[in-house]
């Protein structure tokens, strides 16, 4: 409760102390990305998972939720302005460190990080996902309810003979002779909106461990996949039906009906250099799939 009171106070202070932006400063900025960029400068014991989960909250609230996941052994916090000392008894009670970090604007010298900061894996993936969503016009057209063909977009890009800056590349630069550069444009992962009508399925897909695009499907090689883990180059197809409740004979029939499409998805992923994983909700479903086709990789999703 004391942390919550302190966070509320800091929100109030930010509203009172922050000057009104000039017309030039009113360009829209994604507050979630601003929080991720700010958090990327700090060391996190959990790889930044809490930050990614709470990034849409105002910064003081995010710090309230995630303060305990900081690597406190690597940071020194100093109340250089004296604001935290006098601002609130609650702030002093929970510690000046939280107050310093949760402040709307951190004063110079208030936070000293010991050693080199390696951006948390979860934070990096979230920032990279945001970069990718805005790198391709296909995704922008989808989010606005319009359709932009891949061929049209590629044709527009062809006159650009100069290589893009390294900072805009989604995957790390690779040598010219690498097969990565030989893959066709349709192998580039493009985040697209979830297909509607099945919210529980989409929620399950969003929780895939290390999913690089929670809240989105990923279009690769003409197919909408339920998830993509870029760190392992793995595409996912999620199955959330109540398989184990069906009679054994029906289970086998169900798998055999779905098998051709699963094999097709596996090939589409493989042709673009990705691994392919099928996520199911029960060990029974996994067992029947493996029995029908041992080449498919199947994972029981304990988070659904």
From TrEMBL:
Q: Where is this region: Disordered?
A: 140-204
Q: Where is the composition biased (Basic and acidic residues)?
A: 154-163
Would you indicate the residue range of the signal peptide? 1-17
According to the entry, every stretch annotated as the DUF6310 domain falls at 180-304
Q: Which UniProt keywords apply?
A: Signal
> Is the keyword Signal in the record?
yes
- InterPro entries of this UniProt entry? DUF6310
Signal found in the keyword field:
yes
Where is composition skewed (Polar residues) in this entry?
Answer: 141-153
**The protein's name in its UniProt record:** DUF6310 domain-containing protein
Q: Which organism is this protein's natural source? A: Corallococcus praedator
Biological classification of the source: Bacteria, Pseudomonadati, Myxococcota, Myxococcia, Myxococcales
């Amino acid at each position: 409760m004391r942390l919550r009171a302190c966070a509320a106070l800091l929100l109030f202070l930010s509203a009172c102390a922050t000057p009104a932006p000039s017309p030039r400063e009113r360009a829209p900025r994604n507050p979630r990305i601003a929080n991720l960029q700010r958090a990327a400068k700090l060391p996190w014991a959990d790889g930044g998972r809490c930050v990614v989960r709470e990034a849409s909250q105002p910064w003081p609230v995010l710090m309230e939720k995630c303060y305990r996941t900081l690597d406190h052994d690597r940071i020194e916090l100093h109340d250089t302005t004296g604001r935290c000392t006098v601002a609130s008894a609650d702030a002093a009670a929970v510690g000046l460190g939280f107050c310093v970090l949760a402040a709307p604007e951190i004063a110079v010298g208030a936070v000293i990080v010991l050693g080199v900061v390696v951006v948390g894996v979860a934070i990096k993936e979230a920032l990279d996902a945001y970069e990718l969503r805005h790198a391709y016009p296909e995704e922008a057209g989808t989010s606005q309810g319009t359709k932009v063909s891949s061929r049209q977009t590629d044709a527009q890009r062809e006159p650009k003979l100069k290589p893009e800056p390294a900072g805009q590349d989604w995957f790390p630069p690779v040598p010219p002779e690498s097969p990565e550069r030989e893959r066709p444009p349709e192998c580039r992962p493009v985040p697209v909106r979830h297909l509607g009508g099945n919210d529980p399925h989409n929620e399950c897909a969003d929780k895939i461990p290390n999913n690089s695009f929670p809240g989105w499907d990923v279009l690769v090689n003409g197919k909408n996949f339920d998830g993509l883990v870029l760190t392992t180059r793995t595409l996912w197809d999620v199955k959330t039906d109540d398989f184990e409740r069906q009679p054994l004979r029906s289970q086998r029939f169900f798998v055999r009906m779905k098998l051709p499409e699963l094999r097709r998805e596996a090939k589409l992923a493989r042709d673009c250099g990705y691994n392919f994983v099928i996520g199911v909700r029960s060990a029974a479903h996994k067992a029947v799939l493996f029995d029908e086709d041992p080449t498919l990789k199947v994972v029981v999703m304990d988070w659904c």
